Amino acid sequence: MVSIPVGDIQKIIVGKTVWSGVKSALARGGLVLVYNKYSEIYVALINNEELIAGVKALNANNRNCTGLRC
């Protein structure tokens, strides 16, 4: 299990499926979380908007969000 502090999330990419690297989910249509300097992980949730809203609320400095509704 990977634990990423919310403050380390630099960017959230919506609608991109990762085909290689660390992919903790097999589903498509998830989120790519870019954290630290060059690390990223793919996650697929039931409700992507809830995670995005939560990260934005907790990390007001997260202005590098790209994609739909970010």
Poorly predicted parts: 66-70
Number of domains: 1
Helical residues, percent: 10-25%
The main pleated sheet reads as: 3 strands, antiparallel
Form type: globular
Mean pLDDT: 74
Number of strands: 3
Percentage of residues in strands:
15-25%
Alpha-carbon Rg, integer: 11 Å
Strand order of the largest sheet: 1-2-3
Task: State the separation between the terminal residues, measured CA to CA.
Answer: 26 Å
Structural class computed from helices and strand pairing: alpha+beta
Oligomer description: single chain
* Helix run count: 1
SSE order in H/E notation? Answer: EEEH
Please tell me about this protein's structure.
Helix content is 16%, strand content 23%. The protein is of the alpha+beta class. It is built from one helix and three strands; from the N terminus they run βββα. Strands 1-2-3 form a three-stranded antiparallel sheet, with helices on one face. The protein has one domain. The longest helix has 11 residues.
Task: List the main descriptive attributes of the protein structure presented here.
70 residues; alpha+beta; three-stranded antiparallel sheet; 3 strands; globular; disordered C terminus; PH_YyaB-like
